[in-house]
Specification:
mainly alpha; 6 helices
């Protein structure tokens, strides 16, 4: 997986956190830099941690199913992206303005579950895991911090659009991996 593909993947994965960060910014009203950093650390940290965990879980059985790895990556990314697209058309989630450890921990887990599955696919694709998860974490940190600021300025007008874009990106990336695995491109 090249740098461009990794960047696109990181952006796609960060869209859930970005959308939640926008809502946090909206609910907080007047924000401070510490709010942006708090959201960035929680969401970026978990977006880096979850694919790392998924990678190690996937590495345990990657040798057994390597010839199907492109199908597994495709299916996982299709499911994750499809779910994000579906959620973008659903009801708006109500978020409170709490930046407590408990609140941020739960939101960080909820927005990074998809990254766990991506980590499993990384094991099959022989991705260099440390640079990949670091890159994903940094991109998500930046997107989340910016999301809090945008939320405080524009409100939740763009939340569903961000989630929709993230889902589309993940589906396209899954199709690309499948086509490469089938040697079509």
């Amino acid at each position: 997986m090249g740098l461009f593909e990794l960047f696109v993947l990181a952006l796609g994965l960060s869209m859930d956190a970005f959308a939640v960060s926008i809502c946090k910014g909206l609910s907080l009203g007047k924000i401070k830099v510490k709010h942006m950093v708090t959201a960035g650390v929680w969401f970026g940290g978990f977006q880096a941690l979850m694919p790392l965990l998924g990678y190690f879980m996937g590495s345990l059985f990657s040798d057994m199913i390597t010839k199907y790895s492109h199908w597994i990556a495709f299916i996982l990314l299709l499911l994750i992206g499809g779910n994000m697209i579906k959620e973008s058309f659903g009801e708006e989630e109500a978020l409170d303005n709490s930046m407590s450890i408990q609140s941020m921990f739960l939101l960080a887990i909820a927005t990074s579950i998809d990254a766990l599955a991506v980590g499993v696919s990384f094991a099959f694709l022989n991705v260099s895991i440390v640079p990949a998860v670091t890159f994903i974490g940094v991109v998500t940190f930046i997107c989340s911090a910016i999301g809090v600021k945008i939320g405080s300025i524009f409100g939740d007008k763009y939340k569903s659009k961000a989630e929709l874009c993230g889902g589309i990106v993940l589906v396209i990336l899954g199709i690309k991996i499948l086509l490469e695995g089938l040697r079509i491109i």
